[in-house]
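Section handout 9: paired folding examples.
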Amino acid sequence: MSLIKSYLKSYLTSLYRVARSLKWIITKKEQPKITIVVPYFNDDLNFFKFCLLSIKFQFYRNLEILIIDDCSKPEKVQEISKVIPKHARIISHEKNKGLSAARNTGLNHANGSYILFLDADDMLHAFILYNWIADIAFRSKPPQVIGSYGRNTALYPYQSDSMKFLKGLLYTKNRATLSFVNVAGYLPFNIHACLLDKSMLLENNFFFDETMLDGAEDWDFWYKIMRDGFLFSDSGAYAGIYRQRKKSMSRSKALLHFDESYQLIEKAFARDEDSKVFTEPWFRYQELNLKISRCIRELTVNFLQTNTVEKSLWDFVDSKYQHYVTNYLDADRYIIEGISKFHCSKKTADSTDLNLIKNIKEKIMKSA
């Protein structure tokens, strides 16, 4: 019974969020154009048809569809030209360049304000574009947010895709905004699970590495973006269906794929002098967070006890991390914990505490 209640609650939440997304878009009286880039190289026609159907059944309509043919066989190109939507464009490579190059071609030819990379054997849930647009375009977000992401649903060869599509109506609790620090070297999500701000990609020269031909190129792409200080917002929705195939790149080239992945993990644990924000290894920021959170709590307690600031945060933390702390650390959370500690309670901040939190923050985090 509890499982049924859980599902009903999730479906009702889904309907509420879709209605709220529609309201935002109607109120704004605009639907920013989304470009969907689908790389294609001799893929299974049936899988490709399902991919296109998942685009066709999107409730969000202001779309541009780019099929990037990576020098497929002529008969394959003929096949797909018969099934693609009339408003879709095929852009063909003269020679096979690989998945990264196909995605980069799509990025360079995109006319939309937002862009989504969708592999030819994957599928989108019907409401996801509305939810992403509502999340990334119309909600108040930090300026570092470059995209909105969703959950994946894996589809194995022995499973029915109809049941998986039903899961697309479910919602989960929103997780934290993802950054280089809290991703901790892991792959944050699959390529089709994130809508991206195209202008921010181009302005910062974020492209896929075309030398990576054995997989993990999406992991590398997310890693570069996050290491330069950009964030991904959680839409709380299921993005689409990720097909698990025996002949996929990660299975057919398992050791080569592992080698690419291994190098990416090593990068996360190393310094990166070229990074605009996160030059230190990720665990260095975990250590910093632990020290800073404790420091802010105790400085808050001391301020409430004495009504004076004997020392600021920068007496304990190197000022070279000021940009990171100011822009990426949730200092309010640790101040609230300090207030709770001072009052010996589990008290959480309410509207009456906002001025107090602001006052404490200004005093204990005064510029170095």
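Moving on to protein 2 of 2.
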Amino acid sequence: MFLRSGYITLPFLVHLLCILFPLSALAEYGDIILNRKAEPMRKAQVGDVVFPHWFHRIRYRCDVCHEEVFILRSGGNDINMARISEQGEQCGVCHNGLIAWEPLECDRCHSLEPGWSAGPIQYAHRGEGQAEKTLKERALDIRIGSKAKPYSNIIKLASGWHPAALSESGLPLDRYGLVDWAAAIKEGKVNPIWDLNRSGKKRETRDTKILFVTKSEFVADVLFPHDIHVYWLQCRICHDTVGGPIFEKEAGKTPVDMLGIRQGKWCGRCHDKVAFPISDCNRCHNQPKGTPIGKDVIRREGGPAYYPVEKSVEK
């Protein structure tokens, strides 16, 4: 039900606002332009698709779709209408008239005018030659060779993207103006489900922290929190990923570096695409050199030993 204890739930409010502001509810950071099959779309006389990640994320945790419905890799899914409408796969798992509306009104999804490059909306370009650029090339266009600092671009883009429905939802924003999903959970603004069947099966949890020691003496280390990641995605999504694990299960076995992350590896499989941008350096590099860590923290060696562990600061 949309009404609970006399008040309107956030999903219902957002849905209502999208109806009231249809033209302004087009795209938000993390939304995906789907047009890799542009030629069949043009023959069918329909526009391209913008998949609203934010609209779904309010309702569902990431592993509702990943990876049983969609592989967690850009371009890794052969999305087509036959599978959706005839076989009940992909979007059709929910859009079947029972969980969500049926895919009968084409313009409801095919609402974007042609000519944009495929992929995350924040890297979208229009114009000759832009559509052929890889995601890596488009990411580098934004982050490298610009006189503006990377996060200046993020702020500029965020200020122009927020759909009216999202802006009026009251969701907490980070310092760049993007939705702070971690804060939204902690503040109880959203409570997305993780089991479409609502079977009541036990949710896998883990709150282990891993310390990634940076090689530089001047760059703070990374204290990686498992809990917020496991809230959205089950362990298998990172450690038993389709096509090979994003991270090996044994600490220190995955050679993580920032160049690879920028190219979409490791943390970059989600961050800079749907999760918050890596331009927000201090959000990950949150452990100053020399700060004591808890004894239960797993230390991932990668630099000199800076950390006394006699006194735990972890709660």
